[in-house]
Amino acid sequence: MREFKVVVLGSGGVGKSALTVQFVSGHFCEKYDPTIEDFYRKEIEVDQTRCILEILDTAGTEQFASMRDLYIKNGQGFVVVYSVTNRQTFQDIKIMKEQIMRVKGVDRVPLLLVGNKADLEHLREVPTGESLALAQLWDCPFMEASAKNRTNVNELFAEIVREMSIQPVEE
Ligand code: GDP
Ligand code: MG
Description:
There is one protein chain. By secondary structure, this protein is an alpha/beta fold. Helices cover 37% and strands 25% of the residues. The chain has helices at residues 16-25, 65-74, 87-104, 128-138, 153-166, and strands spanning 2-9, 38-46, 49-57, 77-83, 111-116, 142-144. It has a 6-stranded mixed β-sheet, with helices on both faces. Strand 5 (111-116), helix 4 and strand 6 (142-144) form a beta-alpha-beta unit. The longest helix has 18 residues, at 87-104. The radius of gyration is 15 Å and the shape is globular. It binds guanosine-5'-diphosphate and magnesium ion.
């Protein structure tokens, strides 16, 4: 069975752990230790093909920038998360994307842009159209999601598998 290494990136508090735990364990984590950085494994079926996902839920607590470089180097696909309720987190992902591209040193990397906390419509700061424009610029898929309501959680992990499947990745 093919194995894919996915790295979940984004600023603190955007819901990286909530999305990962919701996907792997099927429940919403109201409070998850923000310093925990962990690997999860889950077998899933995408488009009639079973595969194993190894997911790194990052915490951004690395003491050295080189550690971040290392897990980017080891990652094959990247789920880049911001919160639709926090414009700053949308700015932050642009820097993270640059770092991914620099470390990978290739033109194209399997990547998915995710706007989490879509259930908090009344607190929205980032209009969907802006994210669509960014996704177009990056030439990558984009989804809004809610770890709380389990909206697009399975779908986003399926989508990054598709991205990794269609693009040549280093084994
Ligand atoms: P991380 O630092 O990116 O791992 O963020 P966490 O997963 O720890 O989430 C930070 C906070 O946002 C927690 O209080 C979560 O309960 C909350 N949260 C995460 N995802 C959602 C979501 O989709 N909707 C809502 N309403 N809250 C969320
Ligand atoms: Mg976390």
